[in-house]
Amino acid sequence: MSKKVMLAMSGGVDSSASAILLLEAGYELFGATLQLFSRKEAEKDGACGASSDIEDARRVAQLLGFPHEVFPFSDRFREQVIDRFVSEYCAGNTPNPCIDCNREIKFGALLDQALARGFDAMATGHYARVERDRTTGRWLLKKAADERKDQTYVLYQLTQEQLAHVLFPLGNLRKDEVRAIAMQHGLVNAQKPDSQDICFIPDGDYAAFIRHDTGIDSPQGRFIDAHGNTLGTHQGLIHYTVGQRKGLGVTFGKPMYVLAKNARDNTVTLGEDKKLFTCEMEVARVNLISVDTLSSPMRVQAKARYRHAAQPATLYPVVQGRARVVFDEPQRAITPGQAAVFYDGELVVGGGTIVAD
To answer: In this structure, are residues 73 and 36 in contact, taking their beta carbons and an 8 Å threshold?
Structure first.
C-alpha cells in the first residue's frame, strides 16, 4: 500500500514541483496550504498565504489530481510568530521569524494535523535532505545538494520525532531543474518568483511594521560609547541593528557603527568598525541533531547569519541548553537574536539562538 503524504503547498514552484516528484514516486498525496493572515492582511503584496498563492496551490492540486485543503492558522501564526518577532525586536534582539514559523507552524501545528489524520509523513519544498544513520538510528539533517539554495539554517530546530516524519523531495535538485520539472508539466506557477524577506514585512521596513502593529513609537534614548559616555540621541531601538552605519542621524567626523543595543536602559552603543569583530559568541536554546549530547569540544563550521558562509569554529559542551562558540578568525557583527547553526561537512550538528554577553 502506498504511503500517505501531506504536502505543505505555498503556491510557489518548489512545493508544486515537489508534488510531481512525490506522485511519480508512488505516494498518495494530499495538499495543505496555510492561511496565515486575515483576509485583509492576505491581500498585501508579498504576503505569504495571499489569496493568489492559495489559488495557485489549489489549481496545481486540481491539475495533478489530488485533494487540497486550506488550514486557517492565522491566530496561531499571530501569537507564535508575529507577536514573538515584535517582542524580541523591541527587546533589542534581531530574530528570524522563519525559524519560529518552521518550528511552531509548519513542522509543529501542520505536522501534528498530518499525523492526527493518519498520514505517514509531511513533505515540504525546502532545499534540504533527511537521512537515517544506520549505526546510531538517529535522523540526520543534511545540506541540500545545491548549497546556494540550502535552507537547513532555518530548519535546525527540527527534533528527531519531526525528522522521522518529514520528506524533502527537492534535496538533490538545483533550482533550474525544479523549474524545468514544473514547466514540463504545465504548472501555472513554473516561472513564479521566489519569495523574499520576511513574509509579513515584504517591504523590509521592520520599524514601520512594528509601529503600525503596536500603535506605539519606540522611545528615544541615548547613543553612548563603550565607556557609557553620551554621544547623542537615538530615535528608538527598533530603528537600529548591530553593524549598521547609515541612518544614525548624527555625525561624528568618522564612521561609527552600532555595536550593541540595550533595552534595559534604552541605549545604543556606537563605535568603530573594528569593534564589531569578535571570535566568541554564546548561544542558548541549543537543539542538537546529529548527536544526542555534546560533552566535549567539537570542531564545526558555524553560520551566524542566513546569508553568511559558515566559518571554522569550536563548539564547546552544551550545558543546560547553552554553549560557547569560538571562531578561528574574528567575525563581524554577531547579532543577538539571530540563529547560529553548526555543521560537520554536510551534516547539521545543531544550532541555537545567539544571546548577548
So the answer is: yes
Task: Tell me the C-alpha distance between 276 and 220, whole Å.
Answer: 23
DSSP SS3 for 58: helix
pLDDT value at position 49?
Answer: 60
Supply the pLDDT for residue 194: 85
Is residue 192 one of the residues assigned to a domain?
A: no
76 inside domain: yes
| Per-residue model confidence (pLDDT) at position 253 | 85
The cell for 335 is: 547579532
pLDDT for the residue 51:
81
pLDDT of residue 26: 97
Note down the domain range covering 328: 277-355
For the chain, list residues with pLDDT below 50.
45
Residue with cell 530546530: 157
Q: What is the dihedral of CA 100, 325, 347, 179, to 10 degrees?
A: 50
95: domain CATH number is 3.40.50.620
Same structural domain for residues 17 and 117? yes
d(CA 221, CA 147): 42
Residues 266 and 293 in one domain: no
The CA distance from 93 to 270, in Å, is: 16
For residue 33, what is its C-alpha cell?
496550504
Give the catalytic positions in this structure: 101, 199
Q: Rounded to the nearest 5°, which phi and psi values hold at 60?
A: -65, -45
pLDDT score for 46? 53
- For the stretch 282-297, pLDDT in tens is 999 999 999 999 999 9
The number of folded domains in the chain is 3
**Which pLDDT does position 142 carry in this prediction?**
99
Judgement on whether residues 226 and 244 belong to the same structural domain of the protein = yes
CB atoms within 10 A of CB 18: 26
Q: What is the rounded distance in angstroms from the CA atom of residue 330 to the CA atom of residue 194?
A: 33
* Vertex 332: Cα angle to 355 and 210 (nearest 5): 55
CA distances from residue 295 to 25, 120, 315, 316, 319 in whole angstroms, order as listed: 41, 34, 10, 8, 8
